[in-house]
Design goal:
By secondary structure, the chain is an alpha/beta fold. Helices cover about 35% and strands about 20% of the residues. The chain is built from 15 helices and 17 strands. A 9-stranded mixed β-sheet has the order 2-8-9-13-10-14-15-16-17, with helices on both faces. The radius of gyration is 23 Å and the shape is globular.
Length: about 450
């Protein structure tokens, strides 16, 4: 759970332009905000004079948060972990159009915290919060040969929303085919971390071990979780996924060592639904990989998902029947001709906006795939309860006659494409695992053929 300190408002304009580039990380410009973040924690801990506050923070931040109250927040937060021991290395990235965001691990006697600091263009502190560290992650998969690739930090310079990214590059001379990974629904990091599982890290390192470059990046709704709250009532699937992915794909075409004629879009869940549209708008992509995709109306999956979870104990209670009744009403609202951008989120599934559900209609999977006539690989795990065999079969029925579409299923894979035999549940996502090597090989063999 986050301990929040007030943040300043951020610009509400997103300029969609065709120009995009990557910048190597770290850059000299990122050293100053990191130093200021270190000094501000020293100020909170009383290690430097209070008079330094004006040199380290913006006027707006000081107006919202007195130094005394900020110290109270720090004391309450840190006291739960005992004596302060050290501050880990500070990592800073660009944030919004002209600011920065810094991260550092705060090591206490009995626990760890993550300090997140927002900065203005001069590096001064404009926001601060403390978060719990990620749970211990699963180790890299055995099939990832660390001697066969190198990982490089990049910044995708999307105007107004620069995003940190990792390029996993095979060793040796290029030109290499490349894959851009597109996240599922929700505020996900570049590894698409789900509990201790890191789906995109596994895919990136596994594919790079087989000679394929991979780009993965922080999702806007994760990296900009604070500022994206300003758009909570108007967010669309373009804000959530499509626009940033198009920028990322275009960026890959200009990276040295990448074959610009062999860049593939690979989406998972919502990313799979959006992948054909992303490939279409990015232009000149080599093909599309859909992991746990569907051509069915996404709102129908919400009902199926609820029914599955309700039946895990083989009984649907009276309360669950009531909840399902109201959920059905929300699903019907998505299908209704009266659905509008102004429809309250409370009346719609998953608390998503009317603008989001309307914008999803643009992702016409079957129509777009048929029009593009690009190679498509559709992958499905049959232990997946979020996107199921029903969805795989639906895609087969609609696209199976096209010789440019390949279908591969895995009887033992769940939504995270981990092997197993037990029934998939939300609790099972808390267990560490890795993407199945069979899945990675299927993608690699298809990309390289």
């Amino acid at each position: 759970m986050k301990t929040l300190l007030p943040k300043t408002a951020f610009p509400a304009i997103f300029l969609l332009v065709s120009f995009v580039y990557a910048q190597d990380f770290p850059a000299a410009e990122l050293q100053k905000p990191g130093k200021i973040a270190e000094q501000y924690l020293s100020l909170l801990r009383g290690e430097i004079a209070d008079s330094k506050e004006a040199e380290l923070t913006t006027e707006e931040f000081r107006a919202q948060m007195s130094l005394g109250f900020a110290r109270q927040i720090w004391n309450v937060t840190s006291n739960s972990g005992g004596k302060f021991e050290s501050l880990g290395p500070v990592t800073s990235y660009p944030y919004l159009s002209d600011g920065y965001k810094s991260f550092a691990e705060v090591i206490l006697e009995t626990r760890k915290l993550v300090m997140v600091v927002l900065h203005n263009s001069s590096g001064l502190v404009s926001g601060l919060y403390f978060d719990s560290p990620e749970p211990a992650s699963s180790p890299p998969p055995d099939y990832a040969n660390e001697n066969s690739f190198a990982e490089k930090e990049l910044i995708i310079r999307i105007p107004g929303w620069p995003l940190p990214a990792t390029l996993t590059m095979p060793s040796g001379p290029g030109l290499f085919p490349a894959v851009v990974l597109i996240h599922g629904l929700g505020p996900l990091d570049r590894d698409e971390s789900t509990g201790p599982n890191k789906v995109f890290r596994d895919l990136a390192q596994g594919l790079a071990s087989m000679g394929i470059a991979v780009l993965r990046y922080e999702k806007r709704t994760s990296y900009y979780s604070v500022s994206m709250a300003n758009y909570a009532d108007s967010i669309t699937v373009r804000d959530e996924t499509v626009d940033d992915a198009v920028f990322a794909v275009r960026m890959m075409k200009g990276i040295q060592g990448i074959d610009p004629a062999r860049i593939f879009v690979a989406g998972h869940g919502l990313g799979a639904i959006c992948a054909p549209l992303i490939a279409k708008e990015a232009k000149n992509t080599a093909g599309i990989v859909m992991l746990s995709g569907t051509s069915r109306p996404p709102e129908d999956l919400v009902l199926d998902h609820f029914r599955y979870l309700a039946m895990l104990d083989d009984t649907i209670t009276k309360e669950e029947k009531t909840e399902m009744y109201f959920l059905k009403g929300k699903v019907d609202m998505v299908k209704s001709p009266i659905l509008s951008f102004d429809t309250p989120r409370e009346e719609l599934p998953l608390d998503l906006t009317g603008s989001f559900w309307i914008s999803l209609r643009e992702c016409e999977v079957t129509k777009t795939v048929t029009e593009l006539k690009k190679p498509v690989l559709i992958l499905q795990g049959f232990r997946d309860y979020q996107v199921t065999k029903t969805d795989f079969d639906s895609l087969k029925n609609e696209l199976g006659e096209n010789d440019f579409v390949t279908f591969v299923s895995f009887d033992d894979a769940d939504h995270l494409f981990r092997k197993g035999t037990e029934k998939s549940t939300p609790e099972s996502y808390k267990k560490p695992g890795n993407v199945s090597e069979d899945v990675v090989k299927a993608i690699a063999n298809w990309v390289k053929k």
